[in-house]
Amino acid sequence: MCGRFNATFDSGVKKLYTRLNINKVIDKPIDKRFVKAADVVSIVRSRNESRVVENAIWWLLLEQSDNGFKPSKYTSFNTRYDKLNTPRSAGYHAFRHSRCIFAVKGFGETEFKNKKPVHYYDMHAESGGLLLGGLCRDWLHPHTGEVKTSCSIITLPAHDKLKHIHSKAMPLILPQEDNLVNDWLNTEITNVESFHDLLIPRIPQNLLAQPIDKPLTHLALGEVEFIVKDAI
């Protein structure tokens, strides 16, 4: 996953928030077509036994400044699946205690060769939106008392059906099953063995892959490719 996603708050994404039992009138998420790494984004998490929408910096590791926080020099908008169970890694504690969800329209992928972009793609669900599995952390500033929330999206190895689009990785797309979502957001579930199967590359719903000119302008190029979901 290449550091961008589509957070357009359209009817399909609104339905996702309804399924997540979020009051989208009171807790309306950020509505933005082009979200990039280190931007402020909206996440869904559990806090004080309630499910809420919160704004967070899309960069899990923050550094303290005199008056607040800023993204760390260490890249952390994504958290690799194979680091989740490594003690002292950035996502180890969060994977056990503060998982979150990104309800999005779609995400972007860029393939590189010799550090130069080969192509850009926008990925969308055939219908509705996508739930991406993520992590979040809270940071308390010792001088100002400010609490800042940060987050990252979990990435998996590239799926065979997507390797021609992005050969290295894909985001964790959560199946939209109520019990699974409830467990993912349940802060009392700290035995992460139950999430083992989620860390295997899987496409739980049909996707549309649209080649584009560039992420910022996202003008369509060529035909849309249909990616069939995996069998259960």
From TrEMBL:
NAD as UniProt keyword: no
Enzyme Commission number(s) from the entry: 3.4.-.-
Keyword set includes Protein biosynthesis: no
SUPFAM superfamilies per the UniProt record, alphabetical: BB1717-like
Keyword terms, alphabetized: Covalent protein-DNA linkage, DNA damage, DNA-binding, Hydrolase, Lyase, Protease
Annotated InterPro entries: SRAP, SRAP-like
Family the UniProt entry places it in: Belongs to the SOS response-associated peptidase family.
PANTHER family: ABASIC SITE PROCESSING PROTEIN HMCES, DC12-RELATED
Protein name: Abasic site processing protein
Annotated organism of origin: Thalassotalea castellviae
Taxon lineage: Bacteria, Pseudomonadati, Pseudomonadota, Gammaproteobacteria, Alteromonadales
